[in-house]
Design brief:
Layout: H1 2-10, H2 12-25, H3 36-51, H4 55-58, H5 60-63, H6 65-75, H7 78-89, H8 94-104, H9 111-119, H10 123-135, H11 137-149, H12 157-181, H13 183-189, H14 193-211, H15 213-218, H16 220-244, H17 249-260, H18 264-274, H19 283-304
């Protein structure tokens, strides 16, 4: 069973793209997955992430403080500004612009850990970066969204903060608590967590595509260009900053993956709840989720075939 679950989880990009295509061509089969379904699905996904963490993972911050600070800073500076610049450069309609900026203001995606593993980069650092950016998202995501998307539409920063706490932070902390207090029980169910998260995120994607299929068809080219731009820039800038600050190749690759991959499920949920008057706002998260997994998978294959010659530790 564990081998099957591992195989299923590794094919996450395939299931994500497949669900998106199915939702587009047969929207009547998935358009029911909306509203509170999206909130609960994201919460389940975040709980699954929390069950894979333990208090020992938090000590990872002490072992690699410099690299962790670098990844966090890049996540919450490079990506929000990239989203704003791309939205401005492409002249996006307000709904799309808000959705794109919101995606870029979210923490690292769950799939970043899997892509990091496949790329042969630093998995422990990736987990620390995802954990840190997620736990602090209740403040960073609303503030960046308010600052950058507020020029397009009114942004309820406090509402975004509460939703992030309820659907993201609380489930993660609950998972960590269960792992700490009931390790034996968690050991039995934790292997199913990543697979459940994959199903939840795929349903979120499929539901949003189904509900907005006509809009996606109408703006397909623009959405594709925007999603491609933010993730290519995210991967590239994350890597460039790491190398510019003279971190080793493994750290630079890990930061690149973490910066380039966003939590599209969280962006979808927040857009659906807080920008309901902008039906286009949730759509960029769908394209982002598909695009980042395709690009991340290709990048992982490229780097896996080209392991660094020198892997000297450089952290401070």
């Amino acid at each position: 069973m564990h081998r099957f679950l591992s195989w299923f989880t590794r094919l996450y990009p395939v299931w994500l793209v497949g669900t998106a295509v199915f939702g587009f061509w047969r929207p009547e089969r998935l358009d029911w997955f909306a509203g509170q379904w999206i909130v609960w699905a994201l919460s389940v996904s975040m709980l699954g992430m929390g069950l894979t963490l333990s208090p020992a993972d938090f000590r990872g911050l002490l072992r690699m403080p410099g690299a962790a600070a670098l990844g966090f800073a890049c996540q919450y500076t490079l990506m929000p500004l990239t989203g704003w610049v791309v939205a401005w450069a492409l002249g996006l309609e307000p709904g799309f612009a808000v959705g794109l900026i919101l995606v870029c203001c979210c923490p690292g995606g769950l799939a970043s850990n899997m892509i990091t593993f496949l790329a042969g980069a630093n998995l422990a650092l990736s987990v620390v970066l995802t954990m840190t950016s997620t736990l602090l998202a209740f403040a960073a995501t609303p503030l960046w969204t308010w600052a950058l998307a507020g020029q397009y539409v009114p942004v309820d920063a406090w509402g975004l903060c509460k939703s992030t706490l309820q659907a993201v932070i609380v489930p993660v902390l609950l998972g960590v608590f269960c792992n700490w207090r009931f390790p034996r029980a968690v050991t039995r169910v934790a292997p199913y967590g990543p697979a459940v998260s994959v199903v939840a995120l795929c349903l979120i994607t499929g539901g949003i595509v189904a509900v907005r299929a006509p809009l996606i068809a109408q703006y397909f080219g623009t959405l594709l260009a925007a999603a491609l731009a933010i993730h290519v820039l995210g991967f590239g800038l994350g890597y460039a900053v790491g190398k510019a600050l003279r971190y080793d190749e493994i750290v630079a690759r890990t930061v690149s993956i973490e910066v380039g991959m966003q939590n599209g499920g969280m962006a979808s949920m927040l857009a659906s709840l807080h920008f309901a008057a902008q039906p286009l706002a949730a759509v960029p998260a769908v394209f982002s989720g598909v695009m980042q997994n395709i690009l991340g998978g290709l990048l992982a294959s490229w780097w896996k075939a080209r392991p660094p010659v020198v892997m000297a530790k450089n952290d401070s």
